[in-house]
Amino acid sequence: MTRNNVQISKGTDWILVILYFVLVSIGLMAIFGVTYKEGDSVLQSFFGFNTDYSRQFYFACIALVLGLFILLTDSKFFPATANLWYAAGIFLLLLVFPFHSAVKGTESIIRIGGFQFQPAEFCKITVALALAKYLSSPDTDFTKPRAQLIAAAIALVPALLTILQKETGLALVFFAFFLVMYREGLPAIYIVIGFAIAALVVATLLLDKNLLAIVLTVIAGVVVFLSWRKIKRDNGVLIKIILVWLLCVGIQRFGVPFLFANVMGKHQVERIYSTIGKDIPNEYLKGEQREVNTKTGRKDNTADYNVKQAKIAIGSGEIIGKGLLSGTQTRYGFVPEQRTDFIFVTIAEGFGFIGCVILLSLYALLLFRIVRIAERQRSTFSRCYAYGVAAVFFFHIAINICMAIGLAPVIGIPLPLISYGGTSLLTFSILLFILIRLDADRQMVLR
Amino acid sequence: MSVFNQSRSYIIRIIFLAVFVIILLQLVNLQIFGSKYHQLALDNAVFEKIVYPERGIIFDRNGKPVLNNTIMFDLMVTPFEVRNIDTLAFCRLMQIDTVEFKRRITDAILKNSRVRPSVFLALLSPEMQARFEENSWRFPGFALIERPVRIYPYNVGAHLLGYINEVSPKDIERSGGFYRMGDYIGKNGLEYSYERVLMGQRGVQYMIKDNKNRIVGKYRNGDFDTTAVAGRGLKTHLDVELQILAEKLMTNKVGAVVAIDPQTGGILAMASGPLFNPNDLSGSGKNANYGRMALDVKAPLLNRAIKGQYPPGSTFKPLGGLVALDEGMITPAFGLGCGGGYYYCGRRVGCTHAGGGHAANLRLAIANSCNSYFVHVYRMAVDNPKIGNMRKGFETWADYMHKFGLGVKLGIDLPSEDKGNIPTVQDYDKEYKGSWSSCTNLTLGIGQDKMTTTPLQLANAMCIIANKGYYYTPHFVDSLEDEKPEDAPVLAKYREKHEVLTHISDTAYNAIINGMHDVVTHGTARVARIEGINVCAKTGTAENFTILDGRRIKLKDNSMFVCFAPKENPKIAIAVAVQNAGYGATWGGPIARILMEKYLLDSLTNRSKADLERISNANLLPSYFNRLQYKTDSLRAEEWAKAYGDSTRLKRYLRGVRKVEADSSVKKNTDNKTDKNKKPANTDQNVVLLDERKYFRKPFDNMEEEV
Questions:
Q1: Which residue of B has its CA nearest to A352?
Q2: Looking at this predicted complex, what is its ipTM?
Q3: How far apart are CA B462 and CA B255, in angstroms?
Q4: In Å, how far is B544's CA from the nearest CA of chain A?
Q5: What are the pLDDT digits (tens) for B601-634?
C-alpha cells in the first residue's frame, strides 16, 4: 500500500490540485463579497454555519475529504463500477418523480432531513464514467452507427429524464458529452449538422420569415450550381439537396414556431428573446403578455431584469473593478441569484476587466491541462473520462459566463467550483479527483 | 486506438480557445467601452435627495421683514424600523393615545409601505419637538425632519403676501416638470407672483440606496452634492406700520383700504376686511383654517382691494367733471341751479343739498357733492354735439373711463385682479332693446347704475388726478435682492410712466383739485382735515342692493372715500370702501385721515388716536351675513344628508316649524352669496328696505365650527 501511496503522490498532477484550490478560494471570496453583511465579525461567521460563505467552506472541506478517499481508492475501481454507478444514477433520477420536493419551481430535488440532493447533478459523474466505459470496451466499434447511437443514448437518457423534471438547462449539459464522442471518432458531420440546426433556429428568430426562406433558397441554388457536375453524374445528389432544403424550410416555417408556441415554457421563450434583444412575437405569447407596457412601449419581458442588472454590474466594473466589498450592485442586491448563477458578476464588478481576464486564464489553464492529461493517458477509459470532465467543465464555464454577459439565454447552471451550492461543488470536486486518481495511474492500461 | 483522432484534440483545444476569446471580446465591449453601464449602475443605486433652500424674505420700504422663515419639524416614522419600543411611554410623551398611534402607523404602512418614511405627526410645536428630541434614542424608527415654514412677524398682510402650500399635479404640469412632489409653491399674493425669485434653487444630495430603496449612506462622501441656493428677497413699497394701522381700522368691517404713492405707483398699504392673521395659513393648522375660512360667507380669503366690486358713488364725480372739462362741454365756471333734485329726465334724481347756489360753479359743486350737477355734466358729455351720436358719445366717455383705469385691469403684481365694470353700448342695447339715451343711465354720472370699481382702481384714479394725468402701474415690489439683468423686464413695466391723460389741461386739473380741497376745508369731508396739510378728498355714499330670501333688498349704503395729500406735492393717495356702513364721511373719512396722518406726520393726533380706538372696536359687519351663513350652512347640511344619508348635521336646522327645503327661492340665493354687492338683478319688484331686526340672529349656542 505504501508503494501505491508513493506512486500516487508521484503521479498526482499537482497543477490540477493547485488550480482546484485556487478556484475554490476564489469562489469563497466571491460568495463572501456577495453575502457579507457589514458589522458581522468575519471569523465568527466563517466558522458558524449561518452564512453562505461558511457553508461553502464546510462543503469544500467535505469535498476534500471525499477527494482524499478517492485518491486512496484503487483506480481499477472506477471502470469496474462505472456501469453500476450509471444504473444507480438512473435509479435516483427515477426516484425523484415520486419523492421530489418543490423547490423554486423545479421538480428535480430530493430532500432528506436538512440536505438537498439533485440526482441530475450526480448523473454528470455517472455518465462520464459509463460513457468512458462503453467507449473503451473492446466490443465497441465506434465507426459503426449502432455504437454511436448507443453512446448517444447513454449520454442522453439522463437528459431526457431531467427534462421531464423541468430542468431543461441542466439537461442541456449532457449534450456536452458529444465532445467526447467526437474525440473518439464520431463523424464530425453530426456535430456540424447539430450546430447548423441550432444556427437555423437562431436565424429564424432573428430574421424575418420570408427573408430567411429566400436566403435558404438562394443557398440551395448556389449549392446546386456548384455541384452541377456531380448532379450530372448522379441525380440522387440533386434530390438530396432538395430534401435538405425542404427540411430547412420546414424547420424554419413550422418547427420553430411550433416549438416556441406550444412546447417551450413562457420563461424559456422570454429568456431566449431577452438574449436576442428583440420583442417576443405575439404568436408565442399567451394571455396578458401580449399587452404592451404603456411606459416603455414594448412588451414586458420579465427575463430582461436579470440580464440587464448583470450587464450593468459587469459593465460598471470597468477595468480594475470597484473592490470586492464596494461594488454597489453587488452590495445592494441588484443582481438576482448573484451567489449562484451570476457569481461571475461579483468578480467582474469587484475586480473589473483585469479580474475577469485572470479568472478566464485560470479556467483556460484548467481546461487545457485536462485535455493534456487526457492525451497522455494510455487507457482509453481514462482518456474518455478525462474528455468527459473537460466537456462538462467547458460547458458550464462557457454557458454561465455567457449568461452573465448577455451572450446566451439564462439557463441556470453554476460556475464550476465558484458558484455557491454544495451539490455543485461536490460534483465538480469528485469529477476532478477521480481524474487525478486515474491520471496518477496513467501508465496503466485500464479497461 | 489511443492515437486515433489525435488531431481532434487540437480541434477541441481550438474550440475552447475560440469560445474564451469571444467571451473576452464581449467583456471588452461591456467593461471598456460600456460607460453607460457605469451610469446605469448609478441610477440603480444612487438616490437624489432634494435639499430645499430658504425662501426669500419680503421686506417693507424701511427694511423690516414682513414675511420671514422659520423651521418646524415633522415627526417621520419608518414602520419597518419601529421595533421594541415602549408604545405607552411614546404616546404619553407625544400626547396621543394608543389607538391613535396604531391608526397612524397603519396609515403610514398602507400609504407608503413599511420601509419608507412617512409623516407621523406634522409640524410639531416647539414643545413637542423638544420632548421628542430628548427621547429620540428610545424610539428607533422615528425621526424629525425639517420643514421650512413662513412666519409673519407683524401678523399683517395676509391678502397681499399670500401663502405657500404643497405643489399640486397641475402645478407640476404647468411648470413643465420643474417642480416635484413635495415642493412648496406660492399659491396666492406676492408669494405667487414672485415665486421664481423667492424659491431659490434646490440642492441635491446623492445618497446610496439598496435594492429595496432604503438609504444606506452618502455617495462618494458627498463629493457630487450641490448646495441649495437661498431664494432672493423682495423689497416692497409697503409701509408696515401703515399696514398695521390699516388692518386695525378694518377689523370687523367688510371692505378695503388701498394707499398708493402717486410718484412711484408703489402701494403703501392694502387691507381687506374681514381680515385674518396670515399665520393661520402657515404651520400646522393651515389646512383646517383654510377650510374654515373657505366656508365663511363673509369670504375672508377674498382680497376686496383688488376684487371687491363697488359702485363708486360720489367719489366718481371728479372724474366725470374732468371728462366734461376736457371735452370742452363745461368750464370751471359752469353752474347749475339745483333745488334738491334733477328733473330733466322725468325721473327724479335726488340731491342732498337744495338751493343756496351750492352748485354755482365746478368747485362748489364738488365741495357740496351736488348730484344734479354731475348727472347733468355726464349727460352733456355723452350728448356732446361735436360727437353727434349718443352711442359714440357714450363710447368716448367709456374710453375716458378706461384711461382713468376703470373697467380695465391695471396690472398689479398680484394674481387675479378684477377689472370692475364700465358698461358698454351693447349692455344697454341688450337691456333696453336699443332704445335708450343718456337719460336712461344718467346715474352713471354719480357713480351708480352699472358702474363698479375696485378700491385699487379708485386709488389709482386719485393718483392720476394728483399727478395731473399720468400714473405708474400700482405695484408692491420696489426691487429684488441681487437684481440681475434678467429681472429688468419684470420690474420695467412698473417703472414705466403711463401718460394717459396728460393732454387734459392744467386748468381743468386745478379746478378739480381745488374743488376736492374744498371738500375737505368746508365740504362733506371736513372729518379728513389735517393740521398743516392740504388734503384733497371726495366722499361717496353708494347705494347698493342684494337679493335675500328671493327679494331685492336695499342694503345700507357703502361708505366710500378717496383722497390724496398734500395737494402741492402728493405723496399718498388713498381709497377706502366700507360696506354697508353709511355715509362716506362717517367711516371712510376718519380711516383715510388716520392713515394720512401716520404716513405724512409719522404720528397721530390725540383725536386720531381716539378715533382709531373707536373705529377698530366698531363692528360694522352687515347683519344679513348671519342670515346668509345660516342659509348656506343649512343647504350644505341638506346636501350632505342627501348624498351620505347622514342627517345629524341637518337636524339642527330643522328646529321650529319652518322646514328648510322645498322653498325654491332659497336655492336662488346661494348663487349670489359672493355677489352681495354686485349689480342687482333687473327686476321690477318692490324694493324692500332691509329690516335689521328681522334678519339679525344670534348664532346657536351649540353651533360648532363646520369644517
A1: B31
A2: 0.86
A3: 18
A4: 58
A5: 998 889 999 999 999 898 888 888 888 888 888 8
